[in-house]
Amino acid sequence: MKIVVLLKQTPDTETKIKIDASGSAIEHADTKYIINPYDEFAIEEALQTKEKAGGTPEVVIMSFGDDKARELIIKGLAMGGDRGVLISNAGLESADSLTVAKVLAAAIKTEGASLVLCGRQAIDDDNMHVGTMTAELLGWPHVNVVTKLTLTGEKAHVEREVEGGKVEVYDVNLPAVIGAHKSLNTPRYASLPGIMKAKKKPFDAKTPGDFGINAADIKSKIKVVVKSYEYPPAKPAGRLFQGEELEVMADKVVQLLRQEAKVL
Amino acid sequence: MKVLIFVEQRDGKIKSSAFEALTVGARLAGSPGDAAAVLVGADTASLTGQLAGYGVDKVYTISGPDFALYNAMGWAAGVEAAIKDFAPQVLVGVASPMGRDFFPRLAARMDAALLTDVIAVDWKDGALHGTKPMYAGKCRAHLVSQNCNLHMVTIRPNVMPAQKTGSGSASATTLQVASPSAQSKTVEIRKGKSEKADLTEASLIISGGRAMANAENFKILHECADVIGATVGASRAAVDSGYATHDMQVGQTGKTVNPNLYIACGISGSIQHMAGMRTSKVIVAVNTDKDAPIFTIANYGIVGDLFQVVPLLTKKLKELVGH
Question: Is A31 among the domain residues?
Fold first, then answer.
């Protein structure tokens, strides 16, 4: 059994987002990158699945990105992954979700994985596209926003959280793509020996061409482009009530909600 | 231009946000003859009447026992059948848990462009132009579709209001679709505990933070929420401390909400919390710390102890709504 975990590098949540002078790109020179937080739950689930299966499945940590993704993949190896695969996005930096999914699907097919784990969505564009699109291109089922995963033989019993606290329960055939939600598990920290060992673990640097993908061809088919960025409009300054009797302030705010804001 | 609108229903009830999608779709199509809706579910034929007057002449219904429980593969197959019959250039849906689950699958299948969770959308020069918040709302991207025959979009709920135009006959057309793939079977859908609107669709929300101090204290938020029909939410700090359940979490790693009114109680306003609620139309904050970041985005702030202020708000709201 082989498990592939898909990683995306995302800017640290505390990073200030600066739009460049052209208005059509984000300045990333000072950005600190982290593993997309949801992807950590995917790594942990892969490691727990491996442990439950007696340690035989190989856990492959895969990312489509630039060289900055390398250290994040190594972080995944330090947590316990067995092998890293970095597929270079050189020339495809502006790839949309479907283009990324085409590359990943081809790579996963070559790997011959029986389970793909990823985060429910990346916290930069918040699209929630790539895992599901990859599943469709492979002809596999997917379940996203997963809070519970139980594997038995060639099947997976999966719980997915939807609105209103409702839970959808699925039985899916493997291979499948599973998108991890935060309550799936508690990601482990990399141990010191784990960090030492990670640097010596197998690491494959690949290009889309290695998986039969013609980069120029898929680039010419990109379907969604960012034309420009803008900052959200500034909110008008609010009114802060303090130092008065609490009941007076509560009354003022409730009256304003009806008469000025007109939301009640 | 021909536009197909996916109208989401669960348990035989059409989602209120589906009417927002219909309104957007009807506007993009320009005339009811160019707009169609598609419903998938156990028995959808009885629902088509509710779509009359929303600018669509045609409603595709895909029904049967195989479609009793939502499944991405089944729903993708159903909507795909409607696409094949109607041949739209644009498919509109809602960025709900369901829409966000199967639209990417359908986009990959149809080799289509997909803009997700937009707060504004238009059709210009043969392309969809959508505005989408990114990086936790720190900026917005203007996205444009290209290189495809089908352009798909999901809209963020509660942003573009539903509007009945009075036109559109919403006549039903039944499509027979083979039972969904055996690769994935939805076994059951367990009911949530709450009868209230989900946070992502609620128009009124009252949330508690770490200052709530324990789960029991959320009672005062529920009492306030009951007066105005609000849904109760929580910050990540409150969820991580075990005061609130995980499905109540608002923020970057929780839910993104867009209510008309968001009342933040004892929430200091971390970047990750504000990412999930800053687009609320009106924000009220109650906090003992006058320098709390939440006040920088609040329309109205009260500096005070939530345990005193919230019951007073409840009392004043009761007087206002008259019960």
Answer: yes
CATH 1.25.10.10 fits B3-174, yes or no: no
A121 is in which domain, residue-wise? 2-219
pLDDT higher for A243 or B194? A243
Main-chain phi, psi angles of A21, to 5 degrees: -60, -30
CB-CB contact of A172 with A68 (8 Å):
no
Give the pLDDT of residue B46: 93
**Average confidence (pLDDT) over A214-240:** 93
Q: Is the predicted ipTM greater than 0.90, yes or no?
A: yes
Please tell me the distance in Å from A66's CA to the nearest CA on chain B.
19
- CATH code for the domain defined by B204-321: 3.40.50.1220
**Cα distance from B26 to chain A (closest Cα, Å)?**
23
Shortest alpha-carbon distance between residue B105 and chain A (Å): 5
Residues 6+ apart with CB under 8 A from A200: none
Q: Which residues contact B92 (CB under 8 A, 6 or more apart)?
A: B3, B4, B5, B6, B21, B24, B25, B28, B152, B153, B154, B155
For testing contact with chain B, the best of A26, A103, A136 (most B CBs within 10 A): A136
Question: Is the backbone of residue A82 left (phi > 0), alpha (psi -120 to 50) or beta?
Answer: alpha
Q: Is residue A228 part of a domain?
A: no
CA gap B221, B237 in Å, rounded: 16
Q: Per the CB < 8 Å rule, is B320 touching A258?
A: yes
